[in-house]
């Protein structure tokens, strides 16, 4: 009976080898993770912010769909696919203030530059890489910081506003209750 068992065992071992090779191929093909340059990015109001994301392991992302969006996918800032760049026309406050740097796509890196950062720019930014059915994203949290001068200017504006309200209140009261 040794001859009868041998073919069954060799076909069974061949089956296991084929399954193992298939799993190794699936595990090594096109899988990646995304890391951001810094998870928290702090910049001064009025300055420039540079937000970056990188594929790990580094690989060419020129044929992938990549981009940046704000909070939700519906607030797309930039999308790069099929070699073309599309800016998110729906977000007006980024018009003429952002640049999508794609020159490092061969190494799997994308960067979003935001010029003249405002207090409204603070929050989460998502970068993403999509290759076939594989999708990964990274999150960068942008925090804006005002200078001491900006803080003083805001306080002065508030004081002037309160002073103006007091003048209006006083003049309204004198109109309603004229002195006799």
Automatic annotation (TrEMBL):
Residues 30-146 form the Ig-like domain. GO terms for cellular component: membrane. It comes from the Eukaryota. The keyword Membrane applies. The chain crosses the membrane at residues 12-29, 152-168. Pfam families: V-set. Keywords: Immunoglobulin domain, Membrane, Transmembrane, Transmembrane helix. It is found in: Membrane. The keyword Protease does not apply. This is Ig-like domain-containing protein.
């Amino acid at each position: 009976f040794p001859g009868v068992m041998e073919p069954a065992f060799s076909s069974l071992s061949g089956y296991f080898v084929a399954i193992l090779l298939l799993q190794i191929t699936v595990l090594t093909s096109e899988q990646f993770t995304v890391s951001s340059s810094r998870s928290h990015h702090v910049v001064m109001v009025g300055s420039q912010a540079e937000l970056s994301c990188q594929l790990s392991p580094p690989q060419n992302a020129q044929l992938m769909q990549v981009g940046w969006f704000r909070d939700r996918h519906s607030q797309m800032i930039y999308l790069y696919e099929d070699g073309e760049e599309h800016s998110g026309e729906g977000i007006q406050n980024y018009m003429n203030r952002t640049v999508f740097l794609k020159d490092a796509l061969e190494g799997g890196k994308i960067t979003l530059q935001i010029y003249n950062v405002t207090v409204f720019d603070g929050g989460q930014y998502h970068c993403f890489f999509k290759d076939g059915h594989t999708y990964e994203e990274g999150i960068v949290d942008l925090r804006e910081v005002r200078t001491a001068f900006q803080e003083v200017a805001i306080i002065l504006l508030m004081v002037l506003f309160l002073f103006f309200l007091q003048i209006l209140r006083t003049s309204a009261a004198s109109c309603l209750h004229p002195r006799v």
